[in-house]
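Re: Re: token formats

Sure, here are both.
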Amino acid sequence: MIGFYDYTVILTYLSLVSAGLGITITLIGKGHPFLGTFFLLFCGLCDAFDGEIARSKKNRTEDEIRFGIQIDSLTDLVAFGVLPAIIGEAMIWQNQEYSMVPRLHTGNRLDFLVPILAMMVMMLYVLMAMIRLAYFNVMEEKRLKEEGGKRKAYTGLPVTSAALIFPFVMLMQFLTMRDLTFVYYGVMLMVGYLFVSRIEVRKPGIKGVVVLCLIGAAEFILMLILRSLAK
């Protein structure tokens, strides 16, 4: 078979599987955004450590390194580009039977515009994520040839930040019991812009990664608690 299947790519493959399951479950019935958020958090956990695990293999070939970069970005597009957009879509069409998230309804004749505008925001967000990832691939390959070693900072907000940002918005919706669907889409627009902006984001070290994982774990636990209380 073509491709690589050693331990250095396992987490990346798991992240893609998680994203695919998240998309499928989120679209079940009229939508299930709550469960989709948990798969997004798991994707973030996988991404937090896949790079370190890949670099732990000292005798990686040039093909293995390039393959790792490509599958990482392809997976990130699905996990942190498509999945958050699908969760947003489900927040509009979700069924009260499956979710404690309030149904979006403006109560006027302009309701039909909501899914149209939402689709435009979703596509723009996914497009910005794709551009960000493609640009990173080009620049990373160039940097590895000229400098080598680990990168110290990113240009533009990494798409993996979606793993913490969108679950936080969902968590706020549960805590306030208000319909924050419009807020979710506003955040999607802002985050999409930051993906392609020229802001410098320092790459977190081991301690930073641990802190981010703890934040994700806290979001996960709080959402589980809120869900159990709602039953």
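Second one below.
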Amino acid sequence: MKKSTKIFAAAFAVILTAVMCVSLGIGFITLNKVSFLEANAEHSDTAKENGVLIANRYEVKSTEQISDAYKKGDDSSLSDTDKKAYKAASDVLKDIIKKDMTDYEKELAVYEWIQKNIHHDDDMLVVVQDPDSDTYTPLGVLSGKKAVCVGFATTFRLFMQMLDLDCKVVHDVDLGHSWDLVKIGSGWYHVDLYYDTPNSKFSHFNLTDNMRSDDYTWDESLYPAANSYEYCYAVMQAESIDDPFAIPQKLKDAIKDKRPFFSYKMTDSSSLEKAEMRVMLDQISETVFGTDQYENYYFSYNTILNGKDYIAYASIVYPSSEEDDSQVTEEIQEKIRKKINKVFGSLEPAMEPQIGEAATTEIIR
């Protein structure tokens, strides 16, 4: 091979190698960039408060336009749909909020109104997209009195924003559930009305991060820390006791009064007394609520340390309050039949449909 040819071949090899390295470098950078963008896109979807899809179905929508209009006293800039939500929410606040209320009392009034008046949406099938009946928007919730978790969270947030209280909708890392984080005084607190409705009143009202983490995991870097106990309901309601052995009788009294939530505190308690309190509640859970007499009850408890106070708080979900007809004896039932026959005359029992015939039932709603 000629010398010039060898030189050309060597130069070509160097150039080819450089081109390949540059190509590989660009490819590697591009791949990293795509991966970063994908990861960032996934993070941005979960890092924002609004526009997040919970349970792959219910979108968390902003309510600030409505609350801003309420604080200005002018709804002229709102859409017709938002005007309906504005009116419905304003009517509620007019009934439950008094001028001399503290921020905590306002929050409590809203919480109790929602807990009492809004119910779970048991029908998971969305047939018609109607803003007035959507169970995940404040308008649908206030109109139909039913809500999914997103509906509870956004409706509570709307009320808080209208009352000029900071409030955010929080979601778990799996995007399967949402609740609220509200600022009262200088501290933030978790509120989950979905779980507290209808039977677990106050069990998820004004919790700290530590208390809330027993149920769910969320990206704490996205939200303000909730570490204040000043307006924590379990702390505020805690009854002082001197002896853990007083708990069984107090618990029985609470059950008799059908109290859904209660808490007890011991100040300057020893490590033994703290252990006794935990064991006492644990044994109550196993030996009382594990029996036939209380098998339809749901009992849960936990403990927290707030300065010198060691606090044990618990909640009870009671059995369904449906009426018990077992006390109506055969004698009374016969008396009822005679009374009906006297008024309506002797009635023949309906014939059962034969095989192949269709039995029809008219339902009056």
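The longest helix spans residues 3-47. Residues 248 and 284 are 8 Å apart (CA to CA).
- S.
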